[in-house]
Specification:
Shape: globular
Structural class: alpha/beta
Radius of gyration: 14 Å
CATH topology: Rossmann fold
CATH architecture: 3-Layer(aba) Sandwich
Strand order of the largest sheet: 3-2-1-4-5
Number of strands: 5
CATH class: Alpha Beta
Number of domains: 1
């Protein structure tokens, strides 16, 4: 069974941080991760998104907190996807054509590659044409 036929999801940094911080949308991410533990879904995270999480945590809470957060993420039922040259150029193409950050362009490129749904609450994705499937998480009011 292919990854797509089981239901594949790409989490971006927003989704991971909402889950870890028990913020709005975190419950939906928890549900997806619980289903991944039962092999109902496959869940992926771009290495670029993992780096984005590391720098955000380090900036706000320090290097030790960043290392601890990465260790926690690596214990979750998430496959961290290494980046290759093909993905770099796919992300560059996406960023050249859509108003997304560089890290978000990698999320979209990975979703295209794996025919997966992006899980995010990042408002940048709200104006993205139907290039990939996107499920928007609720955000704090």
């Amino acid at each position: 069974m292919s990854a797509a036929s089981k239901g594949s999801f790409i989490l971006d940094s927003y989704a991971i941080l909402a889950y870890l911080g028990k913020e709005a949308g975190g419950d939906r991410v928890r549900e997806i991760l619980d289903q991944a533990k039962s092999k109902l879904h496959q869940v992926f995270l771009s290495l670029i998104s993992l780096g984005e999480i590391a720098y955000l945590i380090e900036r706000h809470r320090g290097a030790n907190a960043a290392r601890e957060t990465i260790a926690i993420i690596r214990q979750l039922p998430i496959e961290v996807v290494e980046i290759n040259q093909e993905q770099v150029f796919a992300a560059a193409h996406i960023q050249a054509n859509y108003p997304l950050s560089y890290a978000d362009a990698f999320v979209v490129a990975l979703a295209e590659l794996l025919d997966a749904t992006v899980i995010t609450g990042d408002p940048e994705f709200e104006n993205l044409p139907s290039v990939v499937s996107v499920e928007m998480l609720p955000r704090e009011s």
